[in-house]
Amino acid sequence: MFDSIEKLEDVCLKDFCTFKIGGIGKIILFPKNVLELKSVLKECKNNNLKYFILGNGSNVLFPDYYFDKVIISLKNFNVVKVIRQNVVYAESGVNLFALNKFLADNSLAGLEFSFGIPASVGGFVYMNGGAFGQEISNFVLRVKIFENGKVKWLSRKDIDFQYRHSGISGIILGVELKLQSGDKKNIIKKQQENLAIRKENQPYNKFSAGSIFKRENGCIPAKIIDTMGLKGVKIGGAEISKKHAGFIVNNGDAKAIDVIALIQFIKHKTHMNFELEIVVLA
Ligand SMILES: Cc1cc2nc3c(=O)[nH]c(=O)nc-3n(C[C@H](O)[C@H](O)[C@H](O)COP(=O)(O)OP(=O)(O)OC[C@H]3O[C@@H](n4cnc5c(N)ncnc54)[C@H](O)[C@@H]3O)c2cc1C
Hints:
24% of the residues lie in helices and 27% in strands. The longest helix is centred in the C-terminal third of the chain and has 18 residues, at 184-201. It folds into 3 domains: 7-73, Uridine Diphospho-n-acetylenolpyruvylglucosamine Reductase, domain 2 (2-Layer Sandwich), CATH 3.30.43; 80-200, Uridine Diphospho-n-acetylenolpyruvylglucosamine Reductase, domain 3 (2-Layer Sandwich), CATH 3.30.465; 221-277, UDP-N-acetylenolpyruvoylglucosamine reductase, C-terminal domain (Uridine Diphospho-n-acetylenolpyruvylglucosamine Reductase, domain 1, Alpha-Beta Complex), CATH 3.90.78.10. The mean pLDDT is 97. It has helices at 34-46, 96-105, 121-126, 184-201, 221-227, 256-270; strands at residues 7-12, 24-29, 51-54, 60-61, 67-73, 80-84, 87-91, 108-109, 130-131, 134-135, 140-147, 150-155, 171-178, 180-181, 234-235, 238-240, 248-250, 279-280. The strands form 6 sheets. The chain has a 5-stranded antiparallel beta sheet. It starts with 6 loop residues before the first strand and ends with a strand. A hairpin with a 7-residue loop joins strand 16 and strand 17 (248-250). By secondary structure, the chain is α+β, with helices and mostly antiparallel strands.
Protein backbone atom coordinates (compact mmCIF):
# COMPACT_ATOMS: atom_id res chain seq x y z
CA MET A 1 0.00 0.00 0.00
CA PHE A 2 1.12 3.62 -0.61
CA ASP A 3 3.80 2.15 -2.88
CA SER A 4 5.20 5.22 -4.59
CA ILE A 5 4.94 7.53 -1.55
CA GLU A 6 7.84 8.43 0.76
CA LYS A 7 7.01 6.73 4.05
CA LEU A 8 8.22 5.43 7.39
CA GLU A 9 6.63 2.44 9.09
CA ASP A 10 6.53 1.46 12.77
CA VAL A 11 7.85 4.84 13.83
CA CYS A 12 8.66 6.06 17.29
CA LEU A 13 6.06 8.84 17.72
CA LYS A 14 8.30 10.62 20.22
CA ASP A 15 10.45 11.65 17.28
CA PHE A 16 7.55 13.46 15.63
CA CYS A 17 6.38 15.77 18.40
CA THR A 18 7.93 18.39 20.66
CA PHE A 19 6.47 16.68 23.78
CA LYS A 20 8.68 13.65 22.98
CA ILE A 21 5.86 11.38 24.13
CA GLY A 22 4.18 8.52 22.31
CA GLY A 23 4.21 4.87 21.40
CA ILE A 24 4.63 3.37 17.97
CA GLY A 25 2.91 4.79 14.91
CA LYS A 26 1.89 2.43 12.14
CA ILE A 27 2.90 4.64 9.24
CA ILE A 28 3.83 8.21 8.34
CA LEU A 29 3.47 9.32 4.73
CA PHE A 30 5.25 12.27 3.16
CA PRO A 31 3.49 13.11 -0.12
CA LYS A 32 5.50 15.49 -2.30
CA ASN A 33 2.69 17.19 -4.18
CA VAL A 34 -1.08 17.40 -4.53
CA LEU A 35 -1.21 14.41 -6.89
CA GLU A 36 0.52 12.23 -4.30
CA LEU A 37 -1.67 13.61 -1.53
CA LYS A 38 -4.73 12.82 -3.63
CA SER A 39 -3.59 9.23 -4.15
CA VAL A 40 -2.87 8.83 -0.40
CA LEU A 41 -6.36 10.02 0.50
CA LYS A 42 -7.91 7.80 -2.15
CA GLU A 43 -6.07 4.77 -0.81
CA CYS A 44 -7.13 5.64 2.76
CA LYS A 45 -10.73 5.87 1.60
CA ASN A 46 -10.61 2.63 -0.43
CA ASN A 47 -9.12 0.74 2.51
CA ASN A 48 -11.27 2.39 5.14
CA LEU A 49 -8.24 3.84 6.93
CA LYS A 50 -8.48 6.88 9.18
CA TYR A 51 -5.78 9.53 8.83
CA PHE A 52 -4.30 12.38 10.84
CA ILE A 53 -2.58 15.44 9.37
CA LEU A 54 0.62 16.21 11.23
CA GLY A 55 2.34 19.58 11.13
CA ASN A 56 5.43 20.00 13.25
CA GLY A 57 3.91 18.09 16.15
CA SER A 58 4.25 21.07 18.51
CA ASN A 59 0.67 20.93 19.75
CA VAL A 60 -0.09 17.23 19.88
CA LEU A 61 -0.12 14.52 22.51
CA PHE A 62 0.28 11.11 20.90
CA PRO A 63 -0.93 7.98 22.73
CA ASP A 64 1.42 5.62 24.56
CA TYR A 65 -0.02 2.68 22.67
CA TYR A 66 0.06 1.71 19.00
CA PHE A 67 -1.34 4.51 16.83
CA ASP A 68 -2.88 2.91 13.79
CA LYS A 69 -4.17 5.98 11.98
CA VAL A 70 -2.25 6.89 8.86
CA ILE A 71 -0.21 9.98 9.67
CA ILE A 72 0.19 12.37 6.76
CA SER A 73 2.99 14.92 7.00
CA LEU A 74 3.18 17.82 4.56
CA LYS A 75 6.84 18.53 5.34
CA ASN A 76 7.63 18.22 1.62
CA PHE A 77 5.29 21.12 0.88
CA ASN A 78 8.04 23.55 1.68
CA VAL A 79 8.02 26.35 -0.88
CA VAL A 80 7.91 29.96 0.24
CA LYS A 81 7.96 32.85 -2.21
CA VAL A 82 7.06 36.50 -2.67
CA ILE A 83 4.18 36.59 -5.15
CA ARG A 84 3.62 40.35 -5.31
CA GLN A 85 4.54 43.39 -3.29
CA ASN A 86 4.32 42.54 0.44
CA VAL A 87 2.47 39.30 -0.26
CA VAL A 88 4.07 35.93 0.44
CA TYR A 89 2.82 32.45 -0.36
CA ALA A 90 4.04 29.82 2.09
CA GLU A 91 3.31 26.12 1.82
CA SER A 92 2.12 24.18 4.85
CA GLY A 93 5.31 22.31 5.58
CA VAL A 94 7.47 25.43 5.94
CA ASN A 95 8.40 25.86 9.58
CA LEU A 96 8.09 29.24 11.26
CA PHE A 97 11.84 29.62 11.75
CA ALA A 98 12.39 29.24 7.98
CA LEU A 99 9.45 31.54 7.22
CA ASN A 100 10.75 34.21 9.59
CA LYS A 101 14.23 33.98 8.06
CA PHE A 102 12.73 34.34 4.59
CA LEU A 103 10.70 37.36 5.68
CA ALA A 104 13.71 39.05 7.28
CA ASP A 105 15.81 38.37 4.14
CA ASN A 106 13.09 40.03 2.08
CA SER A 107 12.61 42.93 4.53
CA LEU A 108 9.01 41.94 5.21
CA ALA A 109 7.68 42.73 8.68
CA GLY A 110 4.67 41.58 10.70
CA LEU A 111 5.25 37.99 11.77
CA GLU A 112 8.06 38.65 14.26
CA PHE A 113 5.61 37.69 17.03
CA SER A 114 5.78 34.10 15.79
CA PHE A 115 9.56 33.78 15.98
CA GLY A 116 10.52 30.93 18.27
CA ILE A 117 7.24 28.99 17.96
CA PRO A 118 8.21 25.50 16.73
CA ALA A 119 5.23 25.17 14.36
CA SER A 120 4.67 24.55 10.68
CA VAL A 121 2.73 27.07 8.61
CA GLY A 122 -0.15 24.57 8.14
CA GLY A 123 -0.47 23.83 11.86
CA PHE A 124 -0.15 27.51 12.77
CA VAL A 125 -2.94 28.54 10.40
CA TYR A 126 -5.12 25.60 11.47
CA MET A 127 -4.71 26.58 15.14
CA ASN A 128 -4.78 30.33 14.40
CA GLY A 129 -1.60 30.55 16.45
CA GLY A 130 -0.54 33.79 18.01
CA ALA A 131 1.53 35.57 20.62
CA PHE A 132 2.12 39.04 22.03
CA GLY A 133 -1.41 40.14 21.10
CA GLN A 134 -1.12 39.09 17.44
CA GLU A 135 -2.52 36.12 15.53
CA ILE A 136 -1.65 34.66 12.15
CA SER A 137 -5.23 35.37 10.97
CA ASN A 138 -4.41 39.11 11.05
CA PHE A 139 -2.07 38.48 8.12
CA VAL A 140 -4.00 35.87 6.11
CA LEU A 141 -5.35 36.88 2.70
CA ARG A 142 -6.43 33.41 1.62
CA VAL A 143 -5.74 29.77 2.39
CA LYS A 144 -5.25 26.99 -0.16
CA ILE A 145 -6.83 23.73 0.92
CA PHE A 146 -7.47 20.25 -0.42
CA GLU A 147 -11.00 19.06 0.22
CA ASN A 148 -13.30 16.49 -1.38
CA GLY A 149 -10.70 15.66 -4.01
CA LYS A 150 -10.20 19.28 -5.08
CA VAL A 151 -7.85 22.18 -4.48
CA LYS A 152 -9.78 25.26 -3.29
CA TRP A 153 -8.98 28.73 -2.05
CA LEU A 154 -10.68 30.10 1.07
CA SER A 155 -10.60 33.85 1.45
CA ARG A 156 -10.09 35.20 4.93
CA LYS A 157 -13.72 36.25 5.30
CA ASP A 158 -14.84 32.67 4.64
CA ILE A 159 -12.76 31.33 7.53
CA ASP A 160 -14.14 31.30 11.05
CA PHE A 161 -10.94 32.47 12.73
CA GLN A 162 -11.29 32.70 16.49
CA TYR A 163 -8.87 32.41 19.38
CA ARG A 164 -6.69 29.34 18.55
CA HIS A 165 -9.31 28.12 16.10
CA SER A 166 -9.80 28.30 12.34
CA GLY A 167 -12.51 25.72 11.75
CA ILE A 168 -10.83 24.83 8.43
CA SER A 169 -12.09 21.38 7.50
CA GLY A 170 -9.85 20.54 4.54
CA ILE A 171 -6.12 19.89 4.45
CA ILE A 172 -4.23 23.18 4.39
CA LEU A 173 -1.77 23.27 1.50
CA GLY A 174 -0.52 26.83 1.86
CA VAL A 175 -1.37 30.39 2.76
CA GLU A 176 -1.07 33.84 1.27
CA LEU A 177 0.09 36.37 3.83
CA LYS A 178 0.05 40.15 3.64
CA LEU A 179 3.10 41.69 5.32
CA GLN A 180 4.49 45.21 5.61
CA SER A 181 7.69 46.60 4.20
CA GLY A 182 10.29 46.73 6.94
CA ASP A 183 13.96 46.99 7.67
CA LYS A 184 15.88 43.70 7.82
CA LYS A 185 17.93 44.69 10.87
CA ASN A 186 14.86 45.83 12.80
CA ILE A 187 12.95 42.67 11.87
CA ILE A 188 15.76 40.44 13.12
CA LYS A 189 16.11 42.55 16.27
CA LYS A 190 12.37 42.19 17.00
CA GLN A 191 12.51 38.42 16.33
CA GLN A 192 15.40 38.02 18.74
CA GLU A 193 13.70 40.17 21.39
CA ASN A 194 10.57 38.00 21.16
CA LEU A 195 12.64 34.83 21.42
CA ALA A 196 14.43 36.22 24.47
CA ILE A 197 11.06 36.94 26.15
CA ARG A 198 9.96 33.35 25.42
CA LYS A 199 13.14 31.92 26.88
CA GLU A 200 12.76 34.13 29.95
CA ASN A 201 9.12 33.24 30.65
CA GLN A 202 8.57 29.74 29.25
CA PRO A 203 10.22 26.33 29.78
CA TYR A 204 11.67 26.73 26.31
CA ASN A 205 14.47 24.17 26.74
CA LYS A 206 12.09 21.46 28.03
CA PHE A 207 9.86 19.09 26.07
CA SER A 208 6.31 20.45 25.90
CA ALA A 209 3.44 21.21 23.55
CA GLY A 210 3.09 24.86 24.49
CA SER A 211 0.11 26.04 26.54
CA ILE A 212 -2.07 23.14 27.65
CA PHE A 213 -5.30 25.13 28.01
CA LYS A 214 -6.93 27.90 26.03
CA ARG A 215 -7.58 31.31 27.50
CA GLU A 216 -11.32 31.96 27.62
CA ASN A 217 -13.33 35.11 28.27
CA GLY A 218 -10.43 36.83 29.97
CA CYS A 219 -9.72 33.78 32.14
CA ILE A 220 -6.02 32.91 32.05
CA PRO A 221 -5.58 29.27 33.16
CA ALA A 222 -1.86 29.75 33.92
CA LYS A 223 -2.65 32.51 36.43
CA ILE A 224 -5.25 30.38 38.24
CA ILE A 225 -2.94 27.33 38.31
CA ASP A 226 -0.12 29.51 39.63
CA THR A 227 -2.33 31.13 42.29
CA MET A 228 -3.35 27.65 43.49
CA GLY A 229 0.35 26.89 44.04
CA LEU A 230 0.37 23.99 41.59
CA LYS A 231 3.64 24.79 39.82
CA GLY A 232 6.07 21.88 40.09
CA VAL A 233 3.38 19.22 40.75
CA LYS A 234 4.44 15.97 39.07
CA ILE A 235 2.67 12.84 37.96
CA GLY A 236 5.09 10.27 36.61
CA GLY A 237 7.42 12.06 34.23
CA ALA A 238 5.02 14.97 33.59
CA GLU A 239 5.27 18.19 35.57
CA ILE A 240 3.43 21.50 35.75
CA SER A 241 6.26 23.77 34.70
CA LYS A 242 7.91 25.65 37.56
CA LYS A 243 8.58 28.48 35.12
CA HIS A 244 5.13 28.85 33.52
CA ALA A 245 2.05 27.26 35.04
CA GLY A 246 0.32 27.05 31.65
CA PHE A 247 2.82 24.46 30.42
CA ILE A 248 3.13 20.78 31.27
CA VAL A 249 6.66 19.57 30.63
CA ASN A 250 8.02 16.11 30.01
CA ASN A 251 10.99 15.52 32.31
CA GLY A 252 12.27 12.81 29.98
CA ASP A 253 10.21 9.70 30.59
CA ALA A 254 6.65 11.06 30.67
CA LYS A 255 3.82 9.00 29.27
CA ALA A 256 0.67 10.39 27.68
CA ILE A 257 -1.29 8.99 30.62
CA ASP A 258 0.84 11.07 33.02
CA VAL A 259 -0.03 14.24 31.09
CA ILE A 260 -3.71 13.32 30.99
CA ALA A 261 -3.72 12.58 34.72
CA LEU A 262 -2.05 15.95 35.40
CA ILE A 263 -4.69 17.71 33.27
CA GLN A 264 -7.44 16.01 35.32
CA PHE A 265 -5.62 16.94 38.52
CA ILE A 266 -5.48 20.63 37.49
CA LYS A 267 -9.18 20.69 36.59
CA HIS A 268 -10.07 19.00 39.87
CA LYS A 269 -7.94 21.30 42.04
CA THR A 270 -9.00 24.52 40.32
CA HIS A 271 -12.66 23.48 39.86
CA MET A 272 -12.29 24.80 36.31
CA ASN A 273 -13.24 22.96 33.16
CA PHE A 274 -10.52 24.59 31.07
CA GLU A 275 -10.69 23.89 27.35
CA LEU A 276 -7.65 22.09 25.98
CA GLU A 277 -5.43 23.94 23.53
CA ILE A 278 -3.33 20.85 22.80
CA VAL A 279 -4.66 18.17 20.48
CA VAL A 280 -4.94 14.96 22.50
CA LEU A 281 -4.80 11.87 20.31
CA ALA A 282 -4.37 9.53 23.27
C1 LIG B 1 7.75 25.71 23.19
C2 LIG B 1 6.42 25.96 22.53
C3 LIG B 1 5.91 27.26 22.47
C4 LIG B 1 4.67 27.50 21.88
N1 LIG B 1 4.22 28.78 21.82
C5 LIG B 1 3.05 29.04 21.18
C6 LIG B 1 2.59 30.39 21.06
O1 LIG B 1 3.21 31.36 21.51
N2 LIG B 1 1.41 30.60 20.42
C7 LIG B 1 0.69 29.57 19.88
O2 LIG B 1 -0.37 29.84 19.28
N3 LIG B 1 1.10 28.29 20.00
C8 LIG B 1 2.27 28.00 20.62
N4 LIG B 1 2.70 26.71 20.74
C9 LIG B 1 1.83 25.59 20.28
C10 LIG B 1 2.02 25.17 18.82
O3 LIG B 1 3.28 25.57 18.32
C11 LIG B 1 0.93 25.74 17.92
O4 LIG B 1 -0.35 25.26 18.29
C12 LIG B 1 1.12 25.44 16.44
O5 LIG B 1 0.15 26.15 15.71
C13 LIG B 1 1.04 23.96 16.08
O6 LIG B 1 1.61 23.81 14.79
P1 LIG B 1 2.20 22.42 14.28
O7 LIG B 1 2.64 22.61 12.89
O8 LIG B 1 3.22 21.92 15.23
O9 LIG B 1 0.89 21.53 14.31
P2 LIG B 1 0.68 20.08 14.94
O10 LIG B 1 0.97 20.15 16.39
O11 LIG B 1 1.39 19.07 14.15
O12 LIG B 1 -0.89 19.92 14.70
C14 LIG B 1 -1.80 20.72 15.41
C15 LIG B 1 -3.18 20.59 14.75
O13 LIG B 1 -3.13 21.19 13.46
C16 LIG B 1 -3.58 20.25 12.48
N5 LIG B 1 -2.81 20.48 11.25
C17 LIG B 1 -1.46 20.56 11.14
N6 LIG B 1 -1.13 20.82 9.86
C18 LIG B 1 -2.28 20.89 9.15
C19 LIG B 1 -2.59 21.10 7.78
N7 LIG B 1 -1.64 21.29 6.85
N8 LIG B 1 -3.90 21.09 7.41
C20 LIG B 1 -4.88 20.88 8.32
N9 LIG B 1 -4.65 20.67 9.63
C21 LIG B 1 -3.36 20.67 10.04
C22 LIG B 1 -3.28 18.88 13.08
O14 LIG B 1 -4.11 17.88 12.48
C23 LIG B 1 -3.62 19.14 14.53
O15 LIG B 1 -5.01 19.05 14.73
C24 LIG B 1 3.93 26.43 21.33
C25 LIG B 1 4.44 25.12 21.39
C26 LIG B 1 5.67 24.89 21.99
C27 LIG B 1 6.20 23.48 22.03
